[in-house]
Amino acid sequence: MAGGFSFLFLPRRTQSKLHSTLFPLSAMAPLPAPTAASAFLFHAPPRGHHHHHKPKPASSSRPTTTLCSAAPSSTPSLADQLEPLSRMLLTDKPTPAADRAQRPTPEPTWVNPSRPRPTVLSLRRQRRRPAANHPSSAPLQPLLRDLRALPEDADLAPTLHAFFPLPGSPPTSSDALLLLNYLHPSWRKTLSLLSYLRALPADAGFAVDTILFNVALKSLRAARRWDEAERLALDMLDSGVPLDNITYSTLITAARRCRQFAKAVEWFERMYSPASGVLPDEVTYSAVLDVYAQLRMKEEVLALFDRARGSGWKPDHVAFAVLAKMFGEAGDYDGIQFVFKEMREVGIKPNIFVYNALLEALGKTGKPGLARNLFEEMAAEGVEPNARTLTAVAKIYGRARWGRDALQLWDQMRERKIPADSILCNTLLSMCADVGLVAEAEQLFEEMKNPDLTDVPQPDKWSYTAMINIYGSIKDADRALQLFVEMLQSGIEANIMSYTIVIQCLGKANRIRDAVEVLEAGLERGLKPDDRLCGCLLSVVALSTGEETELVLGCLEKFNGNLVKLIRMLGDNQVGTDELKDQLKAVLNAAETEVRRPYCNCLIDICQNHGLPARRPRELFRLAQGYGLYSKLHIRKDDEWLLDLRSLSVGAAKTAFDDWMAALSERVMQGQPLPQSFNVFTGSSTHKFAQGLASAFAAHLEEAAVPFRRSESQVGSFVSSRVELVPWLQTSSSSSRVVAG
């Protein structure tokens, strides 16, 4: 392995995990207590006396203790100096989820590289009994029928005592093994049988050995009963029953199935203790690699893999699939190339599972061309694709906007009679929504609804949601609402995404009352709104007027009162920037990270569309910019400055541009240098469902008479030169056409 490790990381159970940050949430300045909101949209809520701190320079000292307030003095305390900075920090996660237990992560252990490196796994798998040596179950058939008839939680001891009367006819080891294998699907009966066997008197000449315990553990693994499996293994240790390779392997794979990854690592460590006397075989080792990959501990995975390869291990398909999935999750294309290289060196040809893992990994690294080549190689090797393969390829083609290629694969799949599942069909529908293939999506959806087509699954809630999304994208509110009602009438419960898309579609069509009715009906059916639905309602508020605005806010206030309070504060001229900052911070901290920027976009749109105080859009924009939500808008090169507006709404894009012009005007007044050219990028808008940010921005430029023009070389770009822009900035500054921040 290139760049191999000279030492082995062996995991040690973590007792604590460090999650400290420079300024923990507990150290931030307390926020004002919430107050009752007014009944009218833009009337300020009653406010108490709030103390506003003027910004002070942050100290260069790093705090080592919790910050606390101090009495006023001539020299500001450290807490006072750092308080403005703490107010500009958001939590990484929504505040309601801050108390979630963190999954423990094992720490690596360093092994002295100067000592001879021990073998880390057994290259010989534990042998299984040949089928010819299995005893016949014919004598036990009457007992098996009786056990089958018993309830799931029944005590098996009376039935077993009747069949095996003591002391004359105790069960043999073969009888016990047959019974345990027969009861494998029922973990409760398996444990009851094991308890009976362990309770047999010593003079019966029967001892429960490791093999019987292993069979019981496999039953618990199949039922995903980790707590019971671990208790049974600890009981084996307490009873002096030795644990062999199969025991450890079963426990580790059981913990992995139950997503108890830290427990899997703990039992893997036991195998390396001097008392165990066993080493993992290749099956166990592959499972452990997957555990570390699930924990995103890439260095440990590579160290274990390298160490095992040095011991003579030939990785199997499972191990390579684990590596491919891990590198794909991390978007590590070099890692995927490493998997290809190792497979060639080992001489293993990928099977369907490895191909699927590699295709999914290439999709996450944004390599559609390589994914297509790999798919063609797979066909050339004679490996038959399955539904998961085509799902991965369809996702890749959809991201690359190769919709026709994906549908061509679908047609080939139908011709070859390859069965499709719901995931594949829903992926194709979502891809059609992304690339604007309405007719093709309708054809596929009708095939799914046809009961005579047995090779295509029936539509589920995700299928309906994808179709509703398509109609919402083309602003066909009637068809979207009709399909939504059809879904409910067919007995399919709509998910929150369906409600969000329908409400957004109705809002864009200015059918605000219909949107409110859909939301209220969902709340009556037990709908639990999330942050994305709240963002959708914010966009509806931006599009609404008059009484309809109050209808939407009334619904929103039922489950997000802080957000409604912030909207009302925006309309009150008496609310200062500090109060607004505190309320905005509370709203953003309570929201998921990925919706924070859309929230700010919608809030700026509300300010502009509802004629709120002229300073509010710029205040919101700069506060959000201070929180890092608009941190990647500006790109500066030596000869060109670029403003990227693609992630902004129309209102937020206008505000960002005006703020940029104000900053450039300030530089001109101060005589600071400017680049040769300027570029504003609004996106190519090649999607047929694009909402037209470029057109709205062009109208804004024309209204303000800013000397930007459409680029002839790049669609969606507006360019200007220093020679053209500087005179306009000087004129606009003197005539106050650009509002200072």
Automatic annotation (TrEMBL):
PPR repeat boundaries on the chain: 209-243, 281-315, 316-350, 351-385, 386-420, 421-455, 460-494, 495-529
GO BP terms: positive regulation of translation
Residues in Smr domain copies: 643-726
Superkingdom of origin: Eukaryota
Region (Disordered): 44-79, 93-118
Keyword Repeat: yes
GO cellular component: chloroplast stroma
GO molecular function annotations of the record: mRNA binding; rRNA primary transcript binding
Compositionally biased tracts (Polar residues): 64-78
Key word Repeat present: yes
Keywords assigned: Repeat, Transit peptide
Gene3D superfamilies given in the database record: Tetratricopeptide repeat domain
Biased composition range(s): Basic residues: 46-56
SMART domains according to UniProt: SMR
NCBIfam families per UniProt: PPR
Family named by the database record: Belongs to the PPR family. P subfamily.
Name of the protein described by the UniProt record: Smr domain-containing protein
